[in-house]
Each structure stands twice: as structure tokens, then as C-alpha cells.
Design brief:
The chain is 32% helix and 24% strand. It is an alpha/beta fold and 240 residues long. The strands form 2 sheets. A 6-stranded mixed beta sheet has the order 5-6-7-3-8-9, sandwiched between helices. It has a 3-stranded antiparallel beta sheet with strand order 2-1-4, covered by helices on one side.
Length: 240
């Protein structure tokens, strides 16, 4: 699970996404480089989810450009995304992972060992035969992470992975993110949880109104945010 150089960096140049004349991403220029997790922060409606979808290759730009490792049409097979409310297939935990492995980089003979490896990684060892819809919310989120990791992605995009989870479940998800990043997978995630961002981020992309007013190493961002918008956000003020 090590990111190949061909997938990174991801570069956006004057990237725009507009719907019905409304700018959702507004001239975003950004480089997502290898290394520790990149965390997107900002108020609701700031464009975080759209940026994740663009970087994944799911949402096309209406203007500007994006390139993965210098290629504007890179194969998305080495990228994976987990949305805020992942859907569980109505089958067992192991069968969810078996489905994700179909047509992937692992031979069928290796599926059983790969499933065991993934369940161990996300802390679900021993639960392979349990119905996935019967898992708790935190367990479902970790299964969703395992599914996304099934085909050995280079980059993993996460949209609010700790949302609506209790502290213990959120910590378990954070532990998985930390373990995945340590294995060389580039994690790009959005969150409203300042504590989670402090614990996980290598760099912070702060967004507001579809723009990126600030992008800085996490330590610098939290110690001395450079923009008024970021200072207000960290203070808990409403940005309007």
C-alpha cells in the first residue's frame, strides 16, 4: 500500500466548478503533495466536498485544469473515496470486501488473505460473517474504509469520516487513518472537527465560499492563521 509517484502530486490551477451560474469552486489553485494527511477545513457550503470529488475525478471542472502526477487524464483506478454516509451492501462484512475486490489488482486466490488483512487493519477482525447493515455506525465507517482500501489505492479521499460518531468510534476511525497514512497512502480528508485536524493533518487547506484563502502546514495554521477568515473560523465565529 505505497503511493506510486505517477498519481501525485495532484495540481489544480484556477479550478472552477459552477452550477446554474453559481460558483461552487472559484479559481482554486492548489497542490496536494505526498506525505501526511491533507485536511480540508471550512464552514458548510465552502466547497470541501466538491473539491474532494474533483480531485477524485468524479466532478468535471467548468474552467481551469487538474493534473495527477502531471497527467490530465490519469487512470482513476488508484484513487478511492469514502463519502460521509457510506452505503452498506446487504450482505456480510467479508462479502462487502469481496465485492470491492472484484476485477482489482489481487488474484481471486488472494482474496481471502486480503480480506483478513483489511479486517485486521480496520479493527474488524472476527466480524467477517456478520451482516454489514447490523454493524454500529463506527464499524460501518471502518468497513467503508476497508472497502476503499481493497484495491490498494495511492490516494484516499474521505468526506467527514468522523461525522456523527461518538468519541470512541471517532478515535477508532482516526486510528485507521493514521495507520493507512503510515503505510504510504496519501489521505485527503474534510472535517469540521478541529481536534481531529490537529491530530491528523500534515497540512491544512482552509476553504470559504468556494475559494482557498489559506493553505499552510498544520502547525503554522493552528498557531498563527494568516487570514481573518481562518481566525474567525477557529474562534467558532460564523462566516457569512
Amino acid at each position: 500500500m505505497r503511493a506510486p509517484r505517477s498519481e501525485l502530486p495532484i495540481r489544480l490551477e484556477e479550478a472552477c466548478v459552477a452550477t446554474d451560474g453559481v460558483a461552487i469552486l472559484d479559481r482554486v489553485s492548489l497542490t496536494i503533495a505526498p506525505g501526511a494527511p491533507t485536511v480540508l477545513m471550512g464552514p458548510n457550503g465552502s466547497g470541501k466536498t466538491t473539491l474532494l470529488r474533483v480531485a477524485m475525478g468524479l466532478t468535471p471542472l467548468t474552467a481551469g485544469r487538474i493534473a495527477w502526477g502531471g497527467l490530465e487524464s490519469a487512470n482513476p483506478a488508484r484513487r478511492a473515496i469514502v463519502f460521509q454516509r457510506p452505503v452498506m451492501l446487504r450482505r456480510s462484512v467479508a462479502a462487502n470486501l469481496r465485492f470491492a475486490l472484484g476485477g482489482g489488482v489481487f488474484a481471486r486466490a488472494r482474496h481471502a488473505s486480503r480480506i483478513a488483512e483489511l479486517l485486521d487493519l480496520v479493527g474488524l477482525a472476527g466480524l467477517g460473517e456478520r451482516p454489514a447493515p447490523a454493524l454500529s455506525g463506527g464499524e460501518q465507517q471502518r468497513l467503508a474504509l476497508a472497502r476503499a482500501l481493497a484495491r490498494d489505492p495511492a490516494v484516499l479521499f474521505l468526506d467527514e469520516p468522523g461525522a456523527s460518531l461518538d468519541p470512541a468510534a471517532a478515535k477508532a476511525v482516526e486510528d485507521v487513518i493514521r495507520a493507512v497514512a503510515a503505510r504510504g497512502v496519501k489521505v485527503v480528508m474534510s472535517t469540521h472537527d478541529v481536534g481531529a485536524a490537529r491530530r491528523l493533518a500534515g497540512d491544512i487547506v482552509f476553504m470559504n465560499r468556494g475559494r482557498v484563502p489559506e493553505h499552510a502546514p498544520a502547525a503554522e495554521f493552528f498557531a498563527a492563521p494568516a487570514t481573518r477568515e481562518a481566525r474567525l473560523f477557529l474562534a467558532g465565529a460564523l462566516l457569512v
